[in-house]
Amino acid sequence: PHRTCCRTPPGATPAMNCRAEVLEVSVEGRQVEEAMLAVLHTVLLHRSTGKFHYKKEGTYSIGTVGTQDVDCDFIDFAYVRVSSEELDRALRKAVGEFKDALRNSGSDGMGQISLEFYQKKKSRWPFSDECIPWELWTIKVNVVNLANEQERQICREKVGEKLCEKIINIVEVMNRHEYLPKMPTQSEVDNVFDTSLKDVQPYLYKISYQITDSLGTSVTTTMRRLIKDTLAL
Amino acid sequence: MDTDLSSQDRKDLDKFIKFFALKTVQVIVQARLGEKICTRSSSSPTGSDWFNLAIKDIPEVTHEAKKALAGQLPAVGRSMCVEISLKTSEGDSMELEIWCLEMNEKCDKEIKVSYTVYNRLSLLLKSLLAITRVTPAYRLSRKQGHEYVILYRIYFGEVQLSGLGEGFQTVRVGTVGTPVGTITLSCAYRINLAFMSTRAGEDNGAVYPSVEDSQEVCTTSFSTSPPSQLSSSRLSYQPAALGVGSADMGFPVLFAGGLNAAHPHQLIGPGKEGGVPPIPSQPAHGTQADQERMCTPLDGVHYSAATPSSSEDTETVSNSSEGKCGSPHDLLETIFIRKVGAFVNKPINQVTMANLDIPFAMFAPKNVELEDNDPMVNPPDSPETESPLQGSLHSEGSSGSSTGNTHDDFVMIDFKPAFSKDDILPMDLGTFYREFQNPPQLSSLSIDIGAQSMAEDLDSLPEKLAVHEKNVKEFDAFVETLQ
Questions:
Q1: Is the CB of residue B247 less than 8 Å away from at least one CB of chain A?
Q2: Structural domain includes residue A1
Q3: Coiled coil located at which positions (chain A) (predicted)?
Q4: Does the pLDDT at position A140 exceed 60?
């Protein structure tokens, strides 16, 4: 994702004027990556345009976005993503980190991954640019452990059905035609879009994640508690 | 009516709606070909990609769509519908989905045609790409081939949902408001796949290529439309065979003058890809006549049609249209048909899964009532023996064994060749394999024992510390040797 140094505007919570959607899924460990990619790619399909080419007098033309089908290996499911290897790599990297963090947290894997779309607002020196989020997608993940092949087969199908529902939910939100940043002028385009990719142009986005343990607290708190308890001989 | 809309805007809007309709059909049909679709992104606009999306145009599909539209545009009371159906190799057929592109009266006068409407139509096409992979027919279409094929039919006019069976579900893809009405795109899909027999559930393996040279015209019994509206079961790329009469050419011509710089040419002549057809002298009459017909009111329900024969449709629709997307895929379960062999004495209701005449019946999903015997549901007590293997052999049998097996440490297993069956004794090999697949958890890994040993460790710490302190000199000497 586009690396930026942004600060939240003073006095503003991230939720101000920011549309927030939450999706929840329960998956088996090996399904985490595909399920996350399916959801993130579906959102980004709707939030990416072709590359802008500005011409004189402030007009611009837009490149073409290709799409491709992706079949999942561990889920009975298929989804459509934007044909951009760069974008796919970026998402896979983020999802891979999330999956590893989930795995390292212990057997009761629970966490959430967030995709936030934001706009940059230039500030004067000495202040750094502000990042103003306008849409936030959060996917809460609960990792389940299954005992045998039979349960795994059922899980493949069930998770596939659940993801179908999620796709329908996402499309429903997209169809509301709520706030979208204004189409920018050439000088402003980097404040609205990620122009670093060579074939498509998604809105500026960032991906972050959080891991929680089964008690709902963060992992570091739990580790601290464990060590304290162990040393209290 | 639309006095606020400039003529240029009006022309643009009609053009957008027309090409949106054509692209919608392409996306739907391509999603049911049974193949994975892949198109490339291009950063430099070529100008021939409508809505900034790379969607291929299959000429035959465009031809069928234009034939159905016959120069008109979707309007109030006149919807463009793409019907997806399934036909088995034995000739049974069934409607699976109806995709509807409709227009209602709700106008948005303020919206900017060339910009906002266009971008929203582009977004709607993306949503359509996503939703077409999510309905049950997608998975069916990926498996089409020898057992069944997926057909499409395009018609224009009133939506006919009666072929979808009872309790069909609907999913809305999206809406776009325009100054002349609101465009709505939705799908009604069947969930009652009752007539599907075992054939439909089987995995066909290789995906059958859906492009062939021969073109079959289906005169199927399910359709009440004239045969000319039916499309072939295989999509074929036949550049030359399509009609080249002026009636076909007339339709695209209307928009020849309204092109702006961003989209130099969008005309798709039949039989040509990307070429610009010659311009006949008279403009298409379709759109003019269309405007006069746009006054038909549409009542509030999504799919209601004006004719009395579809009154029951209206009822079903109002029940179904609020329905959420449940589990569309429940219906793809295979149904095993029990065959009882000749000369079998056993009454049918005593036939268990193990006696079904299917190979490897032992590995078929267990019946629910046998869960009590499942070692994973009620794990056996930690066995006294060391080896977990032996532990699993000692545990009570699972679904396959009708007699209790008392084994010693190791079992002599009679080798039974595959497909051999013995109604009296269970298949030991099968039982063994199933149990071995589900070994109980290692006792050293279970939490109780872990906690126990930790407590023990902690208790013994002071003693251990004392011992180590005594031997401190030895340890120091050892450390010296290491340095």
A1: no
A2: no
A3: none
A4: yes
How many helical (H) and strand (E) elements, i.e. helices and strands, does chain B have?
12, 5
The answer to whether residue A231 sits within a structural domain is no
Give the SS3 label for residue B84: strand
Q: How many domains does chain A have?
A: 1
Contacts of B437 in chain A (CB under 8 A): 148-149
Pairing, β A19-28 against β A130-144:
parallel
Per the domain annotation, does A5 fall within a domain? Answer: no
Tell me, yes or no, whether A233 lies in a domain.
no
pLDDT tens, position by position, B358-404? 565 555 554 444 444 444 444 444 444 434 343 333 333 333 333 44
Q: How far is B70 from chain A (nearest CA, A)?
A: 29
Helix (H) or strand (E) holding A22: strand A19-28
Given this model, what pLDDT does residue B284 score? 37
Q: Is B56 on the interface with A (CB under 8 A)?
A: no
Domain that holds residue A169: 17-221
CA distance B353 to B338: 9
Q: Which residue among A79, A170, A200 places its CB closest to the CB of B133?
A: A79
Measured CA to CA, the distance from residue B362 to residue B398 in angstroms comes to 10
Beta bridge partners of B177: B182
CB B113 within 8 A of CB B178: yes
C-alpha B456/C-alpha B459 separation (Å) is 5
The two structure tokens encoding residue A82: 């934007």
